[in-house]
Every structure is written in C-alpha cells, then in structure tokens.
Amino acid sequence: MMADDFDNPPKAYENKEFLKSSASRPLRIMAEFFEPEDRFERYNISDTVVFFGSARIKSHEQAEAALAAAKRHGGDLDVAQHDLAMSRYYEEARELASRLTQWSKSLKGRQRRFVVCTGGGPGIMEAANRGASEAGGLNVGLNITLPHEQSGNPWTSRELNFQFHYFFMRKFWFAYPAKAVIIFPGGFGTMDEFFELMTLITTGKMGKTLPVFLYGADYWNEIINFDAMVKFGTISAGELEKFNRVNTTDEAFAAITEALEQVAMTHPGTTL
Question: Model's pTM, two decimal places?
Fold first, then answer.
C-alpha cells in the first residue's frame, strides 16, 4: 500500500479529541483568556461597567402578560403579582444601562469607555444589554454553559457575545476590564459575584479603585444584615464604606458617573 493511501493525522490544534481531554485543560483555560482579549482589542473596548443581578426577574411587559394569564386561567396570582412588582428592577436596569451608554458615547477618544457588560443571560442581564443596545452602544455578554437558566439574550452585541466553560475565567473577565460594578437584586450567583469582589477589594488584591454599588435598598436591607456582621466582628465598620447603596436610576447614574470621573477617567484600559 502506498504511503499516499494513508490519511494524514490531524494537527494537534485540530485534534478535537485531544482538545477536549484533561491533558489540554491548560490550553482551554488559556483560550478563555486570549480569545476575549483579542475581541476586546479588535472592537476597541477599553473598559466596562458591569451589571449583576437575577436571571429570574421579568420585564414589566412579560410580568403583566403573566398576571393577565394567571387571572384568565386560574394561575398563582400571588406569584404573578410579586413578579410584576419585581419587574421594576428590570426596567430600572434597562434605563440605567441606556443612560450610562449614552453618557459613555459622548466621551472623546477612539477607545470605547465604560461599556455595559453583563453575564449575557435573561433577567437583569438582559435588561442591561437591552438598555445599552437601545442607546445604540456595543455591549458585552459573558455567557456560561449551565444546565438551566443561562441562555443568551438577544440584546447582547453579536461581536461581544462570549460563551465560557470555566467560571473562574468568566469571573476574571468581569473584574479585569471593570471600572464600576452595579449589583441589582439576585440570588446565589449574584451573591457569589458580590462577595468575591468585596473579598478582592478588602484584602487589597484589587490593584485599582473599583466602585461597587448595591441597587435597591428594600431588597438589600432585608437580605443581608451588614450591621450585624460589624456587631459580631466578622467585618469592620470601615469595610461598609467600600461599597455604596443606591435606590433610583437618577441616584445610581449620578453616583456611578461621578465615581468614574474621579477614579477612572484618566486611567483607561484593563487592570486588576
């Protein structure tokens, strides 16, 4: 048999079986660093403003439709009415992202500054991507493969729609280009993101000043008793000053833009 009759073996970087193996895990991790970095550079994304929050919060339109359906078909009215009340956070995240995008587009320079960035999924993430898109701005979605809940929303800019496998690499890309973080009501994932950021900040592992804002006093004051943590000595009173609380879009917009002008305007680019 002639040598030409044999198929050429695949190159290592084209060998899917190898690339999915445990031996190539370092390559997959590196890919989740270099591929987003390349796309950020190609689209001149200098830095971001990150929105965190629940994937389960509906838009006002969706919540109204669900309530109407519950009334027609004998559904759970309490749940539907609760969802309608919580939909204020979707609409306020949408408005805030739109206003921040309009403001960032007015800044001079070739680089895109303070681009809205979310986890790319539904709920608050969708609301922020939607608001930025409606304002005519590019926006970022850092999706991750999960068995449920996480599915990409249609408002994320196609050019900046990412899909991660590793949580820690996704978290890196939340933190690395971020110049401010706004955290709406959310569940375990939102709490994880908030506390991990606060751990980095309070331990001095964050080499930049990163303003963090909790949105919605009604939610946060009931969910987490920060004063009790101070009382029991598990955090210090001074650590409560490392994040801010805001309760309206006007208040949030003013606080975020003021913080960005003070600590980030003259320091473009990614850094931890």
Answer: 0.94
